[in-house]
Design brief:
alpha/beta; Rossmann fold
């Protein structure tokens, strides 16, 4: 009991006071200082002092650790994410985003990320070209540069579980890392909206997030009003050309969600409820036919130009009626954020309203 009291007391003393207290205690125990026992008692004293110092340091470090933990908790919020729970700084300033959705969401919420990855090496999405000043390129979303991230000394890192799970421990060592499980929610048509809300919560910008949703909904209503009934019995198709493969975009994809908000009909084959898209061959391309077809081409139109020379392409209703529209692929397919959604709405105004009736 006496030893524990001494240890506890040491934590409240400076080193000089600690030495003085120890010396005073032992000088009062005269038996320890009798000449005939000085040698043995000196050994005992050394041993005792060593034990006290070791315990004192451990106790003080533990006490300091608890104080630091308490202080840290006061300056952050507990957030649930795909890897459990984490304490996020109340007002993060230096943000690193590890996918295009997080990048666009952060900018929309009024926070300029310190650094971000891109889908293609050092190539920013066109709709962000005027908004990326000062953002450091950190690699692609599949291979972020951990050393470059560490040098930025971020307050928070935001990413997706399926991309960053393998490097989560390294990223967490750099800064609090918050991951969203995109894959587990992939069949949910409003997955991109949930990710925006998740990002707003992480960054402490939920009020601004609600204002941005109000603006989005207003734009949807404006577009619906401008479209009127002209597409009431028409179908809107969206296909993507990527790495030599043709993908048909379903109702529960990013673009499918926006078209659903507008009340626009889709071809029967695109009314899918899993994965957001499915691949097509040239022979099954007619499954994606519609009164209007939007094409997002990552392949530089090479494969599309070949396809356009084939009779299968020329038989499509949208082709025959000249209602084929080329759109920017990263905006329409992979960005999945609110800024991209507003750009999609701009495109829909352009092609469905200003281009005339179908």
């Amino acid at each position: 009991m006496l030893l524990l009291l001494i240890v506890k007391g040491v934590c409240l003393l400076t080193f000089a006071k600690f030495v003085w207290v120890v010396k005073t205690v032992f000088s009062s125990l005269r038996i320890l200082w009798q000449p005939r026992q000085i040698s043995s008692n000196y050994k005992f004293l050394s041993f005792f002092l060593t034990i006290v110092v070791v315990l004192a340091i451990a106790a003080c470090n533990h006490n300091t650790s608890q104080q630091e933990k308490s202080q840290t908790t006061k300056n952050c919020r507990i957030v649930q994410h795909a890897m459990g729970e984490i304490c996020v700084p109340d007002h993060p300033k230096r943000i690193v985003t590890l996918n295009p959705a997080a990048l666009g969401n952060a900018i929309a919420l009024g926070i300029q990320p310190t650094g971000s990855v891109t889908e293609v090496i050092n190539q920013w999405p066109p709709y962000l070209q005027e908004k990326i000043e000062g953002i450091k390129f950190l690699g692609t979303w599949g291979e972020p540069n951990l050393e470059s991230i560490a040098l930025l000394k971020p307050d928070v890192i935001i990413g997706w579980k399926h991309n960053q799970q393998s490097t989560y421990s390294q990223l967490s060592y750099i800064a609090p890392t918050i991951l969203y499980d995109w894959i587990v929610n992939i069949n949910y048509p409003d997955n991109w909206k949930e990710y925006f809300n998740f990002t707003a919560k992480v960054l402490g910008k939920e009020d601004i997030g609600q204002q941005l949703w109000q603006h989005y909904n207003q734009r949807i209503e404006q577009l619906k009003s401008a479209i009127g009934d002209r597409y009431k019995n028409k179908t809107i198709s969206v296909i993507v050309f990527r790495a030599g493969t043709i993908y048909s975009m379903g109702e529960n994809s990013f673009i499918g969600s926006i078209l659903s908000d507008l009340g626009l009909k889709r071809p029967e084959s695109q009314k899918i409820t899993s994965n957001g898209s499915f691949s097509l061959s040239e022979e099954t391309l007619e499954m994606a036919d519609g009164d209007v077809m939007f094409i997002a081409d990552y392949d530089g139109k090479h494969n599309l130009s070949i396809l356009k020379r084939k009779s299968l392409w020329k038989k499509l209703k949208a082709v025959q009626q000249n209602h084929i529209y080329d759109v920017e692929p990263t905006t329409w397919e992979s960005s999945r954020n609110l800024l991209a959604a507003n750009t999609v709405i701009d495109d829909l105004f352009k092609y469905l309203v200003r281009s005339g009736e179908v």
